[in-house]
Write a structure and sequence with these properties.
There is one protein chain. The protein is built from 8 helices and 9 strands. It is of the alpha/beta class and 210 residues long. The strands form 2 sheets. The protein has a 6-stranded parallel sheet with strand order 3-2-1-5-4-6, with helices on one face. The longest helix is centred in the first third of the chain and has 14 residues. The protein is globular.
Length: 210
Amino acid sequence: MEGAGCGKPVVVVEHLEEGLSPWILLEYRHLSSIYGSQCVVFTNMPLRYHRIMARYGKPVVESIVDMVDRGLVRREDVIVLDPASPRELTYRDLSSARYVVVGGILGDHPPRRRTWELLTSRLTGARAFNIGSGQYSIDGAVYYIHYMYLNKGVDGYRYVDGVSIETPEGVVRLPFRYPLVDGKPLISGDLVYYIVNKRLPDHVWSEVKG
């Protein structure tokens, strides 16, 4: 499961949704552009989605939980991002890891501790950390890891809680924590298009069709 030529901790996204909705696809696509597809692995990914997901990382049918249990991945090399963990991630923690596991799960507000239930509690013995008190989108959490690794910490890191998007039907409020990049919330432009127009952008649809 190594990220060939990665040179930094590999982000492992454990797919925890039933299917591959347009929303989660767009988050996966965005996090791949942030972190680099060569450093991203999508575990627990049904085989029927591998063709499209291979564009954005390495898709694997097996769960990271099973890979750890079978000894294919060393438990001590893994850390899990979990909002329910009482310990906040530091650069030292991050730099000591080979794999950073992120739950591929769309957030609820308020949170229902599904990352703990579906992932952390099953990865017995793996270290788990939060990345602050807010609930991030999947791609936002990966950006946080990207920022921390590049800057050897989070000095200068800024965020905003909640983003509002104007649509023809009214305002859609996304009540999650978003990193600020150049003073603007980091959210996929393709996701904004999807929320406003209720369809994938043409260039993304072309990728999906192959």
